[in-house]
Structures
1.
Amino acid sequence: MSETKLEDIVSLAKRRGFMYQGSEIYGGLAGTWDYGPLGVQLKRNIIDAWWKFFVESREDVYGIDAAILMNQKVWQASGHVEGFNDPLVEDVKTKKRYRADHLLEDNGVEAVAAMSIEQMGQALKDHNIVSPDGNPLSDIRQFNMMFKTHVGASEDDTSVSYLRPETAQGMFVNFKNVVDSFSPDMPFALAQVGKAFRNEISPRDFIFRVRELEQMELEVFVHPDVWKEQFETWLSLQKDFYLYLGLPADKLHHVEVPAEDRAHYSKHSIDTEFDFAIGQKELGGCAYRTNHDLTAHAAASGKNLNYIPKDGSDPFIPHVIEPTFGIDRLVLAVIDSAYSVDQSNGEDRVYLRLPEHVAPVKMAISPLLKNKPELVTKAREVFTAAKKMYGSVLWDDNGNIGKRYRRQDEIGTPQCVVIDFQTLEDDTVTVRDRDTTDQIRVPIADLLTPKNSN
Ligand code: GAP
């Protein structure tokens, strides 16, 4: 369990412009959050790191960006129309809806993940569980989490489409296209980053469970004989990426998902759980999807989705290993891991110990006094040059230096640079380190020499 409280993270995130409630001025829209200027930069840094790590730096991974809206036959063939459900119960008086498994867990019932929907219904009765408002509950039923919509002007069955609940299917339907264009050797992977939508019955815990989410997924196409070793390879790479983002190894746990709780397409799944402020919960997953998806799409579309090996051996439908990453949960885990409190001048100091390559602001630049034009002019010069070099550099002349440092600490800025009267004499500046609060004098030329970035 993290020592940080979720309410502290939410408060900092809102106050400092990482995240705002979706549609806030209208009272919000449950399960939606808007990323503010710092949140979007942090999220972008994570996505860019992921793309570099898994796509740009490899020769066996091909990026794609498929449309969110897809032919409804995709979701019929994939099994999502039939099987992408959560167990639902309703408060018979207030009509509020709840996830049955969450109610059971909240009431201390164990091993809920392994229960069938009938067993959950029975367990609710056996434990006399009522709604959080104290009212009786309806019978349990399955609720499909896909958002349904119509494409075009007519609203009949043929125009039905869905907002995708996972990015994965965009890759399966493009498998043949990429094979035809690039003739990749096996194993190879497709990778995609994008929005997904799930009509969660009870979105909760800030950005942990939302209705509009973002995923980064890889579909690794392999020969069935090597699925086990490929699974281990990609699970290990997935962990390497988490560590690269600064998540502590002792907060990451591999947990095998029991058969009853696995997604309908998976034959073996290992989730990575993380010690969030809300407890040990799923951060991401790695699934062996067998050839479920390609076989289903080949049958439903009538297209041949066999892979033809270059060595003349028999064509086959590839099996798939899928490492999946939920970006919103990653953002939360990164902030949670970085959230730190220490004592400075007898007061609590809150700071985000973010790795430099993830921090939304790389450097803040200030004139010591904002009413001294000579300092402001010099500081502006340094700011312009630093911004050209590091991109995300902030100008900060608001309040006294102490207040500036505290503000920058809270958003995780690794370095604060101050231009003072000595700068005008010898072209050196003070650079203050976020984590140690130590200050050193550095020549401007050194500050503007590129470091070895990650
Ligand atoms: N393509 C496989 C797939 O979608 P999943 O376990 O359903 O698998 C993958 O979702 C990841 O997406 C999860 O591990 C989690 O990080 C994230 N995720 C799923 N539902 C979410 C939600 N409602 N809110 C935030 N993140 C979610």
2.
Amino acid sequence: MTGKITFTMIKPSAITAGFTGNILLKIEEGGYKIKALKKVLLSKEQAGHFYDMHRGKPFYEELTDFMSSGPIIAAVLEMENAVDSFRTFIGATDPAKAEEGTIRKLYGKNMGENAVHGSDSDESAEREAGFFFSFLERY
Ligand code: GTP
Ligand code: MG
């Protein structure tokens, strides 16, 4: 059975560009319920811990530098089949390859600055939600 929650972040470049409101609106209009929400500035170490599964990959340094370069907005989202549906909803990792109308197509710039994160499994969603939020912060 697939789970009901996924975790997302609005990435620093999308916040700087002023897309926060548009992205949250699109998420809500897409039928996702926002269960938890906050704006956080990650340290390089915290970004490295969050992206631990990518440690050692060629883009790891660039990714963790970028994700700690400015605040992110973290959110837990609820919907049936949340993980898979949200990954389809945001589009391909590379905005140039993302479907028309997806968040990454609309608000992403390139592979690194691709506007949003989306969990890749139910296990990741729980780990990532727990990284940012206690259960007292998830309604
Ligand atoms: P997330 O939802 O952000 O996890 O994206 P994803 O699951 O579609 O991609 P993946 O987990 O493989 O990579 C995590 C993030 O690393 C991506 O969102 C990109 O921002 C970045 N990334 C992945 N591959 C590359 C790359 O080849 N170059 C650069 N600069 N960044 C990359
Ligand atoms: Mg991923």
